[in-house]
Write a structure and sequence with these properties.
389 residues
């Protein structure tokens, strides 16, 4: 509102962020309980509650801390995630589940290091985009140098294999570099090369190529690779507008795989209908709008890039998950933020929200204009900015 106190506006954005996350998290617990109610296995819910409590504490810690400390310590999460991603590939440390080596499993609790890599990579790109912002429009120092770090992290995730997270983080990285000032004429060839390599890897991989066929024609492959997606569509279709009622879903009764994690949105649609599905989508839209506003009002360029990366990560991951469940996108193993079962995913998402809240606490209070400035202006500034030799 024109003439309003910008601090009040920032508080409003923070309130919407908190309400959206709290609503999604609470609703997720309810749906997780409903999805595992049949069979009496409550261990999923208990573990999720434990991860949620730990995530809440870390979220508050990050919210009360100064996010600018990450500018100094950016290398810590980056080094930690790189080390964990390398260790999880070793048979003595990582556990192989469903043909992939992505998890550390200790005393029944699993942890996925790629979740740490999501935030670590965002922090690194925000630091690099801020520290070397004069050089971001260049090819070598703007794309190749940070691309070496990004490519190393993505490569470790890709060979687990986890192509869904690889695509997600690649998209987040490109968007952050573009927002930081990278030029389209340098980015487009990289995008074309990366997309081509991804398509070739999918074609030569029998499992992934069959998933692509199932995506194009799920009914024809409903007895094979397309079984999961086909049941997901049946669940959504049978739910209709209002759903069958909470707890009355049928596909969770031993039919739909991963009903508590990757495909929990199908259970939402079946039991609570289109209305609940749209409510979930609107909650994510509110979260994204609040995140964009907080990033735009950040006190510095680092906060702007950091907030942009986190917001895009949350929004894109939700979009991909819902796209897979509705067969709009090919099957990829990504959790629905704050709703799907998955301890390490929930933990790092809550930590990311805490960082957004920290950015909001120190938000722009003197001007309603965004922090982002045209890259040509940075190139003409007289002050010295460090360079990579």
């Amino acid at each position: 509102m024109a003439g309003s106190d910008p601090r009040m506006t920032m508080r409003t954005a923070t309130m919407f962020l908190v309400l959206a996350v709290a609503g999604l998290l609470t609703f997720g617990m309810v749906m997780l309980y409903s999805s595992v109610l049949y069979g009496g296995d409550h261990s999923f819910l208990i573990k999720q509650l434990i991860w949620s409590a730990l995530g809440f504490l870390l979220c508050m810690l990050m919210a009360l801390s100064d996010y600018r400390l990450l500018k100094t310590w950016f290398w810590v999460p980056l080094l930690l995630s790189g080390t964990l991603l390398a260790l999880v590939l070793h048979p003595e440390f990582g556990s192989r589940i469903n043909g992939a080596r992505r998890w550390f499993v200790v005393e029944g609790f699993s942890f996925q290091p790629s979740e740490v890599a999501k935030l670590a990579l965002i922090v690194f790109i925000a630091w690099y985009g801020d520290r070397y912002r004069r050089f971001i429009p260049e090819f070598w120092r703007g794309l190749v140098v940070p691309g070496l770090v990004i490519g190393t992290i993505l490569g470790l995730i890709f060979v687990e294999p986890d192509r869904g997270t690889t695509v997600l983080l690649a998209a987040v990285s490109v968007v952050m570099l573009m927002v930081a000032g990278a030029r389209w004429r340098y980015v487009i060839p990289i995008l074309v090369t990366g997309t081509t390599a991804l398509v070739i890897s999918l074609i030569i991989d029998p499992i992934r190529s069959e998933r692509l066929k199932a995506w194009l024609n799920p009914e024809a492959m409903k007895d094979g690779v397309g079984y999961q997606v086909w049941l997901s569509l049946l669940a959504l279709g049978s739910g209709g507008i209002e759903g069958l009622g909470l707890g009355n879903g049928r596909q969770k009764l031993g039919f739909l795989p991963l009903k508590e994690s990757d495909f929990i949105f199908a259970i939402i649609g079946e039991e609570l209908g289109l209305v609940a599905g749209l409510a979930v989508i609107m909650a994510f839209v509110a979260l994204i709008i609040a995140g964009v506003f907080i990033a735009a009002k950040a006190r510095d360029n680092f906060g702007f890039l950091l907030g942009t990366g986190i917001t895009f990560l949350l929004g894109l991951q939700a979009f991909i998950n819902i796209g897979v469940v509705t067969n709009t996108l090919p099957n990829k193993g990504l959790a629905l933020p704050f709703i799907s079962y998955g301890g390490s995913s929930l933990l790092m998402m809550l930590v990311s929200v805490g960082v957004l809240m920290s950015i909001a606490r120190g938000g722009h209070e003197e001007s309603d204009s965004p922090v982002l400035v045209d890259s040509d202006q940075f190139l003409s500034e007289p002050e010295t900015v460090g360079a990579i030799s």
